[in-house]
């Protein structure tokens, strides 16, 4: 579960932006991966809006005004630039996540993510995030941000483990009663150094190498470009 070496949805992410189709519409490969982990993880349907809203009320909006009602969730399911994903087992919803995409700004906002308490620490939240992360990377999203209650230590630890970092404390963010922490994840591909590492040779080794002449340098045989794996990973995001 913690490995991210799979590269689903290798087709061009640009077509998603130009055609304005649902961001996850052609993620069959990712769905096949998810089914090996859970009985079903899929884009939400309109019929799921009521249950998503009830989970939001009990798990996220507890103590606050209920804003994510079924009528508020349904438009996000229809929206072509919002991904709503659910994880289910035995006709029971284990968790859901909602992320809005701003493709022109290369940004995304995690609006909601919740997992049934009975299914926590089993990888459900991670699987939901991996699905959304794949969509974001295919769409060349460079930054994902979210807000979490400042007192929610479990949620903060979860997002830290995913690579999010805290960037600001928002005083009175929740109805002027509770503070929130804004967290950000950087999805830009990391560039690997193309410089060969410096090799320090003991004097005995240098004396042995002198037999091959002054032009022999074993460091020249080291790769001067990133590995084939790194190149393939970058090509999958183009």
Textual characterization of the structure:
- It is built from 8 helices and 7 strands, in the order ααβααβββαβαββαα.
- By secondary structure, it is of the alpha+beta class.
- The protein has 2 domains: 14-141, Gcn5-related N-acetyltransferase (GNAT) (Aminopeptidase, 3-Layer(aba) Sandwich); 193-238, no CATH class.
- Helix 5 links the parallel strand 4 and strand 5.
- The chain starts with 13 loop residues before the first helix and ends with a helix.
- Mean pLDDT is 76; it is low at 1-26 and 196-238.
SSE topology:
Blueprint: H1 14-19, H2 28-35, E1 40-43, H3 49-60, H4 70-78, E2 82-89, E3 92-102, E4 107-115, H5 124-138, E5 143-149, H6 153-162, E6 165-174, E7 178-186, H7 203-209, H8 228-236
Parallel strand pairs: 4-5
Antiparallel strand pairs: 1-2, 2-3, 3-4, 5-7, 6-7
Helix pairs in contact: 3-4
TL;DR of this structure?
The protein is of the alpha+beta class and about 240 residues long. It has eight helices and seven strands.
Q: CATH superfamily name of the largest domain? A: Gcn5-related N-acetyltransferase (GNAT)
CATH architecture annotation name of the largest domain: 3-Layer(aba) Sandwich
Q: In angstroms, what is the radius of gyration?
A: 23 Å
Strand order of the largest sheet: 1-2-3-4-5-7-6
- Biggest beta sheet attributes: 7 strands, mixed
CATH class of the largest domain: Alpha Beta
User: Which range best describes the helical content: under 10%, 10-25%, 25-40%, 40-55%, 55-70% or over 70%?
Assistant: 25-40%
The number of domains is 2
In whole angstroms, the N-to-C terminal distance is 25 Å
Mean pLDDT equals 76
Which consecutive residue ranges, at least 5 long each, have pLDDT under 50?
1-26, 196-238
